[in-house]
Amino acid sequence: MKNLPLELIYRLYKADIGDIIDNTYVRLNGAWMTDDNRQTTPDNGFLQSSIVYQFIFKDLSEGAYYQASNGASPAHDSKYSSQNWCYEPFTIHTLDPFPVYRCRYEARAVNTIYVIDNIPN
Q1: How far is the CA of 23 from the CAs of 12, 27, 92, in angstroms?
Q2: What is the pLDDT of residues 64-85, one digit of tens each?
């Protein structure tokens, strides 16, 4: 683990895959994740869900790969109360400096096959 300035982590979060930040860090991937727990429902009938953003980057000065992840704090918009809103990760309620963890990174080529059926009217 090492700590990096939150401003740097935010720039890596906003970067596109392959972008180089400060001639040292390369953004490799990233995705939103959420839990899927449909097995237990509290007595009030509410479902709980956590939203997390995670990405991998490489430190070119060390040759090491790091992973950063942070939950997105819930936000509310009274105009669209039936939708789920959240603040950007790595902004509100976030540690500065931000801890990142060394990880292993592996990329694999995957074949994709598209099947298109002619569905009659």
Answers
A1: 12, 11, 27
A2: 999 999 988 888 888 887 788 8
Closest CA to 7 of 100, 116, 90: 90
Per-residue tokens: 66: 């790091």
82 φ/ψ sector (left φ>0, alpha ψ -120 to 50, else beta): alpha
Residue located via tokens 């237990």 = 40
pLDDT by residue (tens digit) across 25-59?
A: 999 999 999 887 767 777 787 777 788 999 999 99
Q: Where in the chain are the domains?
A: 2-36+49-103
The sign of the torsion formed by the CA atoms of 15, 20, 23, 26 equals: positive
